[in-house]
From TrEMBL:
Record-given protein name: Phosphoenolpyruvate synthase
EC supergroup of this enzyme: transferase
Signal peptide (from-to): none
InterPro entries associated with the record: ATP_grasp_subdomain_1, PEP-util_enz_mobile_dom, PEP_synth, Phosphohistidine_dom_sf, PPDK_AMP/ATP-bd
The protein's required cofactors: Mg(2+)
Example of a GO biological process term: gluconeogenesis
Residue ranges occupied by any PEP-utilising enzyme mobile domain in the UniProt entry: 466-532
Pfam family, one: PPDK_N
Length: 854
């Protein structure tokens, strides 16, 4: 009777244990589905971003937003299955956002026409606004002194012709004979045609943002300012306009596309004369006292290694027209102090006419022989020109102006054309080539390596120069610092991750999955990042101090001015794209703080990882008999819960060895634990363990109670570990498979039985080791968090081996942290392979060598 009762009780217990393990497996598969949905959500977020930027029709935009909402809801539903009732607040935020988005989508106008006037402060596409406006935008966003302005897109210009019926009349007139009379009639038609209401309103609004400055309207055709054909001097520029006269100036530039000289140039270049590819660039005018042109390489004799500068008094129109005598200066590129100056006797200058437009006047006799540019202004102009050349990657033909305060302004930048047969300059060897484009664009700045959150906060654009951040992994924490940098290079990551999404939103170039970039890029060097070409090259050495030369966006300046959006589209943008939850360990990282769908995506991912840790604790409590105990040559045991594919099928018995492990990440972690020389059985040499209290420590920052045993939830490409080594607690979560896009390693390490200063020093030691291992690290007191994201299988395994070694290395390490230099000595010893700290003593010669190498 007793035997039957015992058997029944045991069977019921085993059934409960199996049920608990089955429930954990279900939660694990829910977690993996959530990870896949996280990637899908980020991809759809990028689709909404692109649709808003391009002015996609309302129906297309609505479909993309609804698709994003559906995937985000699946994320929230997955979190609710993992975290239970704690997800109710997230459901509520999701529903509120859906209601707000539904109202915004219903209000979206469906004209099929995107914004007509795009500010130069945002990234501009040369295919939409022409090379001139796109080039000025790139210069301005990189801190060059470029007057503020905007570009009227080629799409808007074509819509103007189409809606007014001018395009049909143009094709008919030019197709019939294309003679001068036909061209004159075309221009007269354009000048006499009223602007459509939408275009007139957009021009007034955009011009109003530049008030009270006078305005200049210039051509920016798609076929203009190219290496193949520049159209130099073929189109129209209208100066000294007001917001009231800008519309007529716009029409004048449009009509200039059909002048006799412009059409003849098009035919000579093999371009169809009746096709309009004109965009218009509008800028605030510089009250110039001098102006001219700079060729960064002498266009006639580039082999001399000199630049060519022309300068005239007043506005630059006489310099580009060649209508007045100009000072000519030839300057050594590698030594800007070496100048060959030929002064002209100035006779004419162009000045703004108070009645509008420009007039010419005689140069006062006392100024006729005076140099237009002072030596200081000329030196600064040369440095700016070389910086513009470095940014573009080719010699430049620049127009500039100097105001009454001697400030130099750049008005145009296009590829320089050199004499046929001349020897061209060779490009510098790149620092790095490779990776993937996450956010296209070029930027000029100082390379700054960052591996901790403290690095992120310290390295922002400012007096030290514009910053190109170099990160080991795509740390989401970097998102809030991103507006303070010019660009980013990330060794890990992928184009759909959080950081890439924010980079595109803020218009910052980002090169991702750039394996080897951290080692190849010299910290502190001036460089150019061309994210579109996956290239990082040195800047010209004669540029000098970038911080003094270029203006930089402040860290709190936020994103560049967006393209004008309707109120409904702006509302959709604000409810979907921004990421405000950037600190996963801060007090505001909560469901109630999710303000956008991007926030919900981030919050759901972080919450899911914590929920799986909690699930492991529950299984240990409820189904201890279902776990296997991993042992193997080191005084460290791990209770393994096989989620499917984590252990080999032939593994038998309660106790298993390393050869029974099929989980790729768990095997890598154990490989690190089994490294010869780790001090599992002894305190560090020369340490005093009397100060290490034999007491448990709890992690007050964590939502989960720290369990006593070491355990691992393991699958073929996944591991979730809770480890206790003496008084330290480590939580590790990792995916390691063949596809880099889904791989990651996350570490949370805290605790210790020593006094607070010793624990903090131990945390500092871990921080240095993890940085060297390619992790992004955040240290707060004795809490260290680190992650490695989207790395290759090999790099992910290497990171896990490092963490395994750290689990053994940190045993009683606090006892050795007796002085402020101890963390660095211990880290140097570890990185040199001295895991037993034989060279740790301050006076050990090998320790000194390791420190120097570190």
């Amino acid at each position: 009777m007793i035997g039957r009762l015992w058997k029944a009780w045991r069977d019921r217990r085993e059934a409960r244990n199996r049920a608990a393990l089955d429930a954990l497996k279900v939660r694990y598969h829910t977690f993996r589905i959530l990870l896949a949905n996280n990637e899908r959500a980020l991809e759809r977020l990028a689709g909404v971003e692109a649709a808003l930027a391009s002015g996609a029709p309302g129906g297309e935009l609505a479909g993309l937003v609804e698709d994003l909402q559906a995937v985000t809801f699946e994320l929230v539903d997955g979190v609710s299955r993992l975290a239970g009732q704690g997800a109710n607040a997230l459901y509520a935020r999701q529903l509120r956002l859906e209601e707000a988005l539904r109202a915004a989508l219903e209000a979206v106008e469906d004209t099929g026409r995107g914004p007509s006037c795009l500010p130069l402060a945002r990234p501009l596409d040369a295919r939409e606004v022409g090379g001139k406006a796109a080039g000025l935008s790139e210069l301005r966003r990189n801190g060059f002194p470029v007057p503020d302005g905007f570009a009227v897109t080629v799409t808007a210009c074509r819509a103007f012709l189409r809606e007014t019926g001018l395009d049909a009349r143009l094709r008919q007139a030019l197709g019939r004979d294309g003679g001068n009379d036909a061209l004159a009639a075309v221009r007269a038609d354009i000048l006499a045609t009223p602007l459509p209401g939408w275009l007139a309103g957009d021009l007034r609004a955009a011009a109003g943002r530049l008030a009270p400055a006078a305005l200049a309207a210039r051509s920016s055709a798609l076929s203009e300012d190219l290496a193949e054909h520049s159209f130099a001097g073929q189109f129209e520029t209208v100066l000294h306009l007001s917001p009231d006269t800008l519309g007529q100036g716009f029409l004048t530039v449009m009509a200039g596309a059909f002048s006799e000289r412009a059409v003849a140039y098009r035919r000579e270049a093999g371009l169809p004369p009746a096709v309009l590819d004109m965009a218009v660039c509008v800028q605030a005018m510089v009250p110039a006292v001098g102006a001219g042109v700079v060729f960064t390489s002498d266009p006639v004799r580039p082999e001399t290694g000199r630049m060519l500068v022309s300068a005239v008094p007043g506005l630059g129109v006489l310099a580009v027209d060649g209508a007045a005598p100009a000072d000519i200066i030839r300057i050594r590129r590698d030594d800007p102090t070496d100048m060959d100056l030929r002064l002209a006797k100035k006779t004419l200058r162009a000045v703004p006419d108070p009645a509008g437009g420009v007039r010419r006047e005689a140069v006062p006799p006392g100024e006729a022989d005076r140099p237009v540019l002072s030596p200081a202004v000329l030196t600064r102009l040369v440095r700016l020109a070389l910086a513009a050349e470095s940014l573009a990657g080719t010699p430049r033909d620049l127009e500039y102006a100097v105001d009454v305060t001697d400030r130099v302004w750049l008005l145009q930048s296009r590829p320089a054309r050199v004499a046929h047969g001349s020897r061209r300059q060779t490009a510098p060897d790149p620092y790095y080539q490779g990776g993937m484009t996450a956010s296209p664009g070029r930027c000029l700045g100082v390379l700054r390596h960052m591996a901790t959150e403290a690095d992120l906060a310290a390295a922002t654009n400012g007096p030290a120069g514009p910053v190109i951040a170099v990160l080991p992994t795509a740390a989401p924490e970097a998102a809030r610092f991103l507006p303070g940098w010019q660009g980013l290079v990330v060794a890990g990551g992928n184009p759909a991750d959080h950081l890439s999404t924010v980079a595109r939103e803020t218009g910052r170039p980002l090169l991702t999955r750039a394996a080897g970039a951290v080692e190849a890029l010299p910290d502190g060097a001036a460089a150019v990042l061309d994210a579109g070409r996956c290239l990082v090259t040195p800047a010209h050495p004669a540029i000098g101090d970038l911080g003094e030369l270029l203006a930089s966006p402040a860290a709190d300046a936020g994103k560049p001015a967006p393209a004008p959006l309707s109120p409904a589209r702006a509302r959709i943008h604000d409810l979907t794209l921004p990421l405000t939850l950037t600190d996963a360990y801060g007090p505001t990282f909560a469901a109630i703080e999710c303000r956008t769908l991007h926030d919900i995506i981030r919050f759901a991912h972080e919450t899911a990882i914590l929920a799986l840790f909690e699930a492991g604790d529950e299984v240990l409590e409820e189904s201890f008999s279902q776990v296997r105990i991993l042992r193997g040559g080191v005084p460290f045991e791990v209770m393994v819960i096989d989620l499917g594919g984590g252990l080999r099928e032939e593994a038998a018995g309660r106790f298993i060895g390393p050869s029974d492990v099929a989980s790729i990440p768990l095997a890598a972690l154990w490989q690190g634990l089994a490294t010869p020389g780790l001090r599992f059985g002894a305190p560090p040499p020369g340490s005093d363990i009397r100060g290490v209290m034999a007491k448990g420590a709890t992690d007050g920052r964590s939502r989960r109670p720290v369990g006593e045993p070491n355990y691992a939830l393991a699958a073929r490409d996944y591991v979730n570990v809770n480890a206790r080594v003496e008084f330290h607690f480590a939580m590790i979560d990792a995916v390691c498979g063949p596809r880099a896009g889904g791989n990651y390693v996350r570490l949370r390490f805290k605790g210790g039985g020593a006094a607070t200063p010793l624990r903090h020093r131990r945390a500092s030691c871990l921080e240095e080791i993890l940085q060297a291992g390619g992790f992004f690290v955040n240290r707060q007191g004795d809490l260290v968090t680190a992650h490695l994201l989207d790395a290759s299988r090999e790099a992910t395994e290497k990171g896990l081996v490092l963490l395994g070694r750290l689990l053994g290395f940190t045993r009683l390490l606090d006892a050795a942290m007796t002085d402020d230099a101890a963390p660095r000595r211990a880290a140097a010893a570890f990185l040199a392979g001295d895991y037993g700290l034989a060279t740790f003593a301050p006076d050990h010669p090998a320790g000194h060598r390791a420190l120097e190498q570190a």
